[in-house]
UniProtKB/TrEMBL annotation:
<keyword id="KW-0443">Lipid metabolism</keyword>
<dbReference type="InterPro" id="IPR011032">
    <property type="entry name" value="GroES-like_sf"/>
</dbReference>
<feature type="domain" description="Enoyl reductase (ER)">
    <location>
        <begin position="46"/>
        <end position="355"/>
    </location>
</feature>
<keyword id="KW-0275">Fatty acid biosynthesis</keyword>
<dbReference type="GO" id="GO:0005739">
    <property type="term" value="C:mitochondrion"/>
</dbReference>
<protein>
    <recommendedName>
        <fullName>Enoyl-[acyl-carrier-protein] reductase, mitochondrial</fullName>
        <ecNumber>1.3.1.104</ecNumber>
    </recommendedName>
</protein>
<keyword id="KW-0444">Lipid biosynthesis</keyword>
<comment type="similarity">
    <text>Belongs to the zinc-containing alcohol dehydrogenase family. Quinone oxidoreductase subfamily.</text>
</comment>
<dbReference type="InterPro" id="IPR036291">
    <property type="entry name" value="NAD(P)-bd_dom_sf"/>
</dbReference>
<keyword id="KW-0496">Mitochondrion</keyword>
<keyword id="KW-0560">Oxidoreductase</keyword>
<keyword id="KW-0276">Fatty acid metabolism</keyword>
<dbReference type="Pfam" id="PF08240">
    <property type="entry name" value="ADH_N"/>
</dbReference>
<dbReference type="InterPro" id="IPR020843">
    <property type="entry name" value="ER"/>
</dbReference>
<keyword id="KW-0521">NADP</keyword>
<dbReference type="Pfam" id="PF00107">
    <property type="entry name" value="ADH_zinc_N"/>
</dbReference>
<dbReference type="GO" id="GO:0141148">
    <property type="term" value="F:enoyl-[acyl-carrier-protein] reductase (NADPH) activity"/>
</dbReference>
Amino acid sequence: MTSLVVRSKLMANGFNSSILSSHISKQYSRQYHNSRAAKLVFSEFGDPVEVVQKENENIVEPKEKEVLLKVLAAPVNPVDINIIQGKYPIKPHFPVVPGIEGVAEVVKVGTEVSDLNEGDHVVPLEGDLGLWRTHLTVAEDKLLKVPKSLDLVQAATLTINPCTAYRILKDYTDLKPGDTVIQNGANSACGQNVIQICHSWGIKTVNIVRSRPNFEELKEFLTGLGATYILTEDELRSTDIFKSGQVEKPKLALDCVGGNSALAILRHLQNSSPMVTYGGMSRDPVPVPTSALIFKDIQVCGFRITDWIKNNEKSDNRFTMFKELISMMANNELKGPAHELVGFSNYKYALKNTLTFKGMIGRKFILEFDK
């Protein structure tokens, strides 16, 4: 029963306005207290399809500075998969509810909550809240309010890949309009964000992907996001776009693959330029020639967004970043990744396909909790 219907019926039966709000509040308190929620949880490492189970739980009433959330959507990220498999360097304490990012609606607020209201949309400021669940009660200061005008995919995927792309483009060299960035894994969710942010900033991108049957389709998709050049790994070995002057040598290389793919993009860098490794999809080490270090002064760096967040949890830089990214989304300069929405009850499909395709499918699976 909606609050409007409750209010109408109470007033029709003679309730005065001074006790009306209290009555409604108590009714909703009983409603949530007696309601059941559901979550995905694992208590041992292994194959996500096997070890992740769906369980019911009670909804927890929010304390003074807490809010009760209804989760709307949460993506299945490679990091989530690695954590469940036990392959992530940091091991959680069991039992664990996965889900490092997502978007939720505020359905109830504690008595001392000041900046959030019922109906607001929020995203997590911390990655350990566990958003693969229908409801969650959490402290207000662990959440960031986002415009309800953002679509579910944009909001649900805001806190990891767009932030990673933004930081690795901002923090390692001084990029200016007309400069060039080269990246591998360009069809990944982060790669798609790199393309769009660079396009918005007037920076050219050389985007490397693995060979695949639908390469022309992928090329058309990435070009639509603003990619300047799209090459397969084989094409990169023989390209003359840098020697011919079609595009300047890159001032920044971004690596999420490792192995020979990392070496291939490193070789095209300008002298005294950085390569930032933020992923290792190939699981191969990054080979760096001695000559690149001594004669070209190439800097090889690593980046992890969770470490950056720990060091900048309440910094102005962090909230300036969110403001700019949300503005780009609102202006349609930054779209959500290619994706497939999957109903919560069908979560094994999302896990299985994320495992099976390993980035080749070119879309992110996102759990949708209203279905």
